[in-house]
Amino acid sequence: MGYFVIDGLKMPVSGEVVISGAKNAALPIMAASMLCRSAELGRCPVLSDTEAAAKILKTAGFECTRDKSFKIRRISDGKAEIPRELCGAMRSSVLFAAPFLCRFGYVRMCAPGGCRLGARPIDIHLDILAKTGAEITYDNDSITAKADCLKGAEIVLPFPSVGATETAIMAGVCADGRTIIKNPAQEPEIHDLCSFLNFAGADIHCGKEIEINGKNAFLGNAVHTIMPDRIEAGTYLAAAAVTGGELFLKNAVYEHIRPFADILTQMGAAVCQTETGMYIDAPERLYNPDFVETAPYPLFPTDMQPQLTALAAVKCGDCLIKENIFETRFAHIPQLNKMGADIEQKSPREFLVHGMNRRLESKTISASDLRCGGGTDTCGTFGQRRGSDTKRRLYSARLRRYLSKDVAYWCKNAVLHLTRRAFKFYYI
After folding, report:
1. Which residues 6+ apart lie within 8 Å of 183 measured at CB?
2. Is the per-residue pLDDT at 340 higher than 60?
3. Number of separate helices (H) and strands (E) present in the chain
4. Among candidates 343, 300, 346, which has minimal Cα distance to 318?
5. Within 10 Å of residue 298's Cβ, how many Cβ atoms?
6. 318 alpha carbon, distance to own chain's centre
7. Facing residues of 228 across strands?
8. What is the Cα–Cα distance from 134 to 417, expressed in whole angstroms?
9. Residue 256 in this model has a pLDDT that exceeds 80
10. Domains by residue range for the chain, with CATH
11. How far apart are CA 23 and CA 8, in angstroms?
């Protein structure tokens, strides 16, 4: 298993970074491309999850090529089964269930994998398919869905789940009749998926409810640019805030990450939208908010909770953080405490961060999931550089690479785009 070494220096993170395409938008759009004649995707990120999605598409008979854009087109009949190893590779494999069902009238898959964030049942996805006319059967850990033709339906989500909303949209597009989704997720990634499908010929109307006029037919060709990754943008904002830096984030959209940007402004940083991206200028001394809790969009995103925790750990004042989405998204806390942070658990979903107003210590730490890695990386940029022997230096943070390609992609961007005066980042 490889790891990264972050050599935290005293100079702030500064310069310009180009924000890449959003993974959480790319994956459902790649799945939805099965409903189209062909698709050409700009700004599609190169990640382990998108590579796994491409393999699933190839199983279904689609050719995937990458040059300046990512191109998908159907070249053979393919198979109506998602390979077990690909289901286990990523959580988003469940998003392919509806497209497989529309394309083949049948799909066989097993329970999906992904980051270890607690209970994330797929029952809601299967219930949606059942409401649109699919017959669901279980055989040990395998799941089979069959349907000659999906039917439009009224789908009421018990919780505004992003993945479930995407499943309902893709099922409704090729269904016979009108589908109405009540209590849908409102994340920008949902609107990006709908824009892609509407370009290909779908009839989707988004609002407090999502209405889809199903065509009972496959869609045409689609050309689409994946939206910028708002969580990647937020992570770079956090790195600049932690170190008291000045940073321009090309392609970033303020509205997508407004809850976190507003908190940074409240803490004392200057954050604004420009014509081509976002800009942050953060003083080294920032003051923590009293309380932050995660919630569905447009409120504070759970994927930014580890980065906020890392930021609060090195700034001034106490901050109580409540995690309402994932019950086990706390893997970063013992790692940050290992570096010298003072974070205490107050309840199963609440923890109190005592701002230290100083750098953390150099330690060897691990990341069990992607966002945990984002949080520990954020603090690593502000860690103390120890040791006077230049031949054998102790670095600010050594991050074991559990989600190698995804973390590597973010770190590669940091090396390419952030000023080398800010901090040194090694991959070993």
Report:
1. 156, 157, 158, 159, 160
2. yes
3. 13, 23
4. 343
5. 13
6. 28
7. 21
8. 48
9. yes
10. 3-20+228-427 (3.65.10.10), 23-225 (3.65.10.10)
11. 28
What is the number of other CB atoms lying within 10 angstroms of the CB of residue 293?
A: 16
- The C-alpha atoms of residue 282 and residue 31 are separated, in whole angstroms, by 39
The rounded distance, in Å, linking the Cα atoms of 205 and 108 is: 31
Q: What are the backbone dihedrals phi and psi of residue 144, each rounded to the nearest 5 degrees, phi first?
A: -125, 135
Q: What is the pTM of this model?
A: 0.86
User: Helix, strand or coil for residue 282?
Assistant: coil
Half-sphere exposure of 425 (CA within 13 A, CB side): 25
Cα–Cα distance between 374 and 379 in angstroms, integer?
A: 9
| pLDDT higher than 60, residue 222 | yes
Spatial contact of 120 and 114, defined as CB atoms under 8 Å apart: yes
Q: Collapsing DSSP states into helix, strand and coil, what is residue 428?
A: coil
pLDDT at 81: 93
Give me the amino acid identity at 277.
Answer: G
Known catalytic residues are 115
> Tokens representing 274?
């420009």
Cis peptide before 12 (omega within 30 of 0): no
Tell me phi and psi for residue 393, to 5 degrees.
-85, 150
